[in-house]
Amino acid sequence: MLTPATRLRLQAILERIGNDEPVSLQERIYVQKFADHDQGVGLWLRQARRRRSEAGPGDGIDRFLDALQLGPSEPEAPYRPGEDDIEDWFGSAPGWLRRS
Questions:
Q1: d(CA 74, CA 43)
Q2: What distances in angstroms separate CA 91 from CA 39, 69, 85, 86, one per listed residue?
Q3: Mean pLDDT, range 10-17, rounded to an integer
């Protein structure tokens, strides 16, 4: 259970994370400690990171998917749209599949 003072401090730090403002290492460790033990704080942290990584408002389906929290929580996701190629996904597939 979070005290009101702790909740306000966490939300202030998370607001700065979401706005891509400077956050000290001690503050990040503080937030992560609570996120590891409290699902609500973990959700707040994922939402702040997602807000930070958003490029724009997007269309309705993007907002819907963001609300579901299905995507990667880290902005440093391993998928690289400009570099990854679909051919790599089928590199070890049988020959008949690679030809089609």
A1: 12
A2: 39, 30, 10, 9
A3: 94
Could you tell me what percent of the chain has a pLDDT over 90?
A: 40
Q: What is the pTM of this model?
A: 0.55
Tell which residue, 20, 3, 24, has the closest CA to residue 55.
20
Residue 75 CA to residue 84 CA, distance in Å, equals 16
pLDDT, position 57:
53
The owner of tokens 């409290």 is 38
Q: Report how far apart, in Å, the C-alpha atoms of 30 and of each of 18, 22, 42, 50, 58 are.
A: 16, 15, 12, 19, 32
**AA identity, residue 51:** R
Determine the distance from the C-alpha atom of residue 7 to the mean position of all C-alpha atoms in its chain, rounded to a whole number: 21
